[in-house]
Structure formats: structure tokens, C-alpha cells
Write a structure and sequence with these properties.
This protein has 103 residues and is an alpha+beta fold. Helix content is 38%, strand content 28%. A five-stranded mixed beta sheet has the order 1-2-3-5-4, sandwiched between helices. The longest helix is centred in the first third of the chain and has 14 residues.
Length: 103
């Protein structure tokens, strides 16, 4: 499980980082947060063990976390993203992500 605030130049770079990490560690569960041009962004990626084994859905997780950044998002069971307007909520979103993923 990896839950981190990262520095990336674009929201697409955040998505790419998530997929790059999955390529190196296929069983990783992650929540990444970043501020891009003063706007908060989140990415949630879950392995099959959590989506199929425990019934978690990345889209539902990211929607819950996005409340902290006054935003919204969604996606597939294994990968989802969100954007918002309150960058000061990123740390709270990541803290809730840690709690949800059990770290």
C-alpha cells in the first residue's frame, strides 16, 4: 500500500505515475495526491485482491476522498481519479485513503 503526496506537472502525469508504479509492483494499492497549478488531484489504483477479493471500487473510494478537496471524480473498479478546488484538503484526503486501505 502506497499513499503519498507527489509532485507532477499535469493531471495526466499523475495518472501515468500510478500506472508506472503498478507496472513495477502489480499488487500495489495506492492513493496519490498532487497539487497542479493550485488545484488538487487524486488518483486511486487498486489491485485485483481488493477489487475482487474485498469488493472495493476505486471510483467509490476516490469519490469519498474527493469530498476533502471539494471535488468529484470517478472511474473504473481498479483505477479512478478526482479533481477539486481546495488544495488544503489534500492531506486529509490522503489520511482517509490510508485509513481505507488499512495502513
Amino acid at each position: 500500500v502506497l499513499v503519498e503526496r507527489v509532485t507532477v506537472p499535469t493531471p495526466d502525469a499523475l495518472k501515468q505515475l500510478a500506472y508506472d508504479l503498478k507496472a513495477k509492483a502489480p499488487d500495489v494499492a495506492l492513493v496519490l495526491g498532487a497539487a497542479v497549478d493550485g488545484k488538487p488531484h487524486l488518483a486511486v489504483l487498486l489491485p485485483d485482491a481488493l477489487t475482487q477479493g474485498k469488493g472495493l471500487h476505486a471510483g467509490n473510494v476516490v469519490k469519498q476522498l474527493a469530498k476533502h478537496i471539494r471535488g468529484g471524480g470517478g472511474g473504473q473498479p481498479f483505477f479512478a481519479t478526482a479533481g477539486g478546488s481546495d488544495v488544503s484538503g489534500l492531506d486529509a484526503a490522503l489520511a482517509e485513503g490510508r485509513a481505507l486501505l488499512g495502513t
